[in-house]
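Please predict the structure of the following assembly.
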Amino acid sequence: MRTQRFARLAAALLLIGLLPQRALAQFTVYTSLASFLAATTGAGTDTFEDLSITTATPAPLARTAGSFGYTASVNTTSFFGAGSAADRWLSTNTTTDIITFNGFGPGVRGVGGLFFGTDAAGAFRPASSIVLVARTASGMSTRTVLDATLATFVGFVASADLISLTVEAVQPLSGSAFAWPTVNNLVLAGAPAMNVVPEPATWLMMVTGFGMMVLVVTGRRRKV
Amino acid sequence: MPHRSRSVIAVAVLLLLSSCARDTTTTAPRATPFAGAASVAEAQANVRVNEVESNQGVPGDWVEFHNAGNTAVDLGGYVFRDNDDTRGYTMPAGTVIPAQGFLVLDETQFGFGLGAADAARLFAPGGTQLIDSHTWTAHATLTYGRCPDGSGAFATTTLSTKGATNDCSVQLFINEIEGSGGTPGDWVELYNPGDAPADVSGYVFRDNNDATGYVIPAGTSIAPKGFLVLEEADFGFGIGAADAARLFRPNGTTLVDSHTWTVHASTTYGRCPDGLGGFATTASATKGAANICAAPSSDVKVNEVESNLGAPGDWIELYNAGTQPVDIGGYVVRDNDDTRGYTVPAGTIIPAKAYLVLDEAVLGYGLGAADAARLFAAGGANLVDSYTWTAHASTTYGRCPDGTGAFGTSTTSTKGAPNDCGAVTPPPPAPSFAAWPGDPTVVNSDAGGLFNGNMSGLSYQALPGLSTGVIWAVRNGPGTLFRLTFINGLWTPAATRTWIGGKALRYPNGTGDVDAEGVVAVGNAVYVAAERNNASNAISRNSILRYDVSVESGGTLVATYEWNITADLPANGANLGLEAITRVPDAFLVSRGFFDESKGRAYNPADYPGHDGALFFVGVEATGNVHAYALDHASGAFTRVATVSSGFPGVMDLTFDAELGQLWAICDNTCNGRSTVLRIDALAGSPTLGRFVITQRFERPTGLADLNNEGFTFAPLSECVNGRRPALWADDGETGGIALRRGTVTCSAF
């Protein structure tokens, strides 16, 4: 009897604890562009091929990725066009600047791209670490990419509309071989399709919630 | 063939021929861009840099070329450079020097100024093959010129001859004058300071009468460092009590040297030292020999000083405490600025126990809040007496008793009369300086060897979204703006890709080398305080310049505005001008009841349209004074709204702490690296109500060496940790390879 009461109490507390989280947006992080695209709809890509790679570009920038508009800004006054004429990237002029993508408008649930570091000349800088933070109105998700390469894809898919993504480079502890945060092929996408297979974490939450409900109902029947 | 078809064919042939003709033109040799240009050999043989004006020419600097040949030379495509290989002026096609003629290029044509240490170089087309050049290390008194034209060596000229044959006459001085009681009569002594004999044939000597003159006979010369005496019997007229001695070139109109007096000297009037010195009454006549300068009198003292609001201005009173009259002709009176001084006219005598007042209008300069009155013997080298102060007296500073006593603050001003010793109060105690309000420890904060010295001004700018902002730093030579980012304990210029190495600062016309001494940033605008153009470094050009750093401009930044306030400031040496700048917002000034000295009432921003919501406070090295200016960003006009003393004889940087309402003034190693903090006096009834007054004085941190720290800034309160925030000093001398040193300063208001 005492054990049953304890179990019901625990179940009730768990439910109470879960209830507020239901109001928070849920994030799923993808490291494969294909998985990201499969989990979203209407994806559009900004390749940044129009940027100058010989000088700085004043910030902020009003841009589009497919049918989605967005704004790219930095803490100071300018971006820097990194990469080469064959493949141009969006980067900062100052190492410590943080790139912020926002102004997505309604309906943007997915944001991703290739994130890595560049050097003073705008060339790829190996072994850079990049910190990504995606935000909705009710939550955020952080992902740190270690040893980012030119092919390092990271995508966030949220259960609510996204409001921003920030990109910051971690600076070396010594020396002057700084890392400038850099983005290529930014992807914005809409809400997941209805037949999307839930991520493992979503499955786990659903099963846990269902189990708790069963436990509560069972306890009530025994009491009667 | 139909007639129409033939016509079509003819037109086609003509077009083909026309096309061929154009092709022929475009394949002309690139090394000769102008068809009429002279061959390099021709130019090498006959064209020379012939005369150079690098300072205060009309309308600016200029260079003159001479063609020694007998045919005209076309210099189209030839390149003129100073000592900077990165720039040059390519002469347009058709630029011709006539045979035996001259060609002048003005600064307005070649687009850059010539410096005190610079060069004038002529290159063949292409800009690499040197034809001729002249290099110098200091501005000439007049110009540098070849003597004779084209073939002679360069020397300092005695007459600027822009576009004409150089004047190769020698430098001569009137060196000593006997106007009363000479043997056998009056006489005048000439002096040749040169190292070669000076031919003075045909030179004309006159007194103050233009109608008469004595022509020195042909064949007359003066030995190197030698003297020539002209006797009254030679020139045929006597020299009067109020008269002049004047020497003219053989043309009879070009004045070489002169001296004018109003009374006879007790001995003679002579230059001291020979040639270069000013005129004074000599100890004894030395006819035909080196002058003997009179020993300065120890009886003459600086006796009373008015440095603020005197009538009609500042003044210095001298007093002869001896029992004999003293001739102080040739004595030099200076404030704390060695670059200027007033030379007392020859024949000026102070009777025994008498006073001589020198008014500001006579001295030619004003006295500052922290300044000095110094009396030098004739020649200006040997100090006779002086008094130094650090703040204006409420009345005057005076000796008590006259001539022998110590200086104190007078209760009443006694200009030209005995000091009121009954009312003289003791001098104010020397101000005390508290320990630095921050950590005593200071650490190096740049990677070393980055800036090559001359770092002068600093300004912290917070950035939204970042925990640490950027620091703007200016180097005074070459004038450069740096954007520094804080990474791993060091402030580095290498963290912003388009700012690595900084950006060279230019004046609004795109030229010059801005001697940037102070900096303050607001938004995308960076304001720089500069004291001169390094390309003309003997000339004061106290300016506030505005730069837009949001627009990428490569390695050079051109000012969008310049407010040249030189004429509004007391005259100062070219290297003793603006050193500091900061910006104080209107909202703060109005909220504290800031007093507008130009209007005589409380400051009202509406009085100054276009001033961008703030006043700019600038600091002057020569005086230690801080001046507040309203800068009109539309018209370029400016108004001096207030002046306040920093409490130092010189101020090196200013930083306004907008969060705590405090104005910091920093002095360098001339004041042991001390600082003062000024706040607006809000005490009702205070005589300084609404003015900035010094409320705190601080020593430098004990861990900071007494260096030539000309820059200082600190972080906002958002960076406070345990009540202290980062502070940064800039060392102009880059001692030990380090220009930037970091410590902390309190986050509390005083």
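Chain A has a mean pLDDT of 84. Residues 12 and 212 of chain A are 8 Å apart (CA to CA).
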